[in-house]
Design goal:
single chain
Length: about 45
């Protein structure tokens, strides 16, 4: 995962993830302590 942004409150990571069905997708992960959110990018 590549860190696209890192701030005091949140950080954003981008990269490719392989899902249980075997497909790979570009994802963006937003981390905000104490929560995490995934954003799937469909192309």
């Amino acid at each position: 995962m590549n860190t696209a942004y890192k701030g005091r409150v949140i950080s954003v990571e981008t990269g490719t993830r392989r899902f249980p069905n075997g497909q790979e997708h570009e994802v963006e992960i937003v981390r905000h302590v104490p929560s995490v959110a995934y954003a799937l990018t469909l192309i």
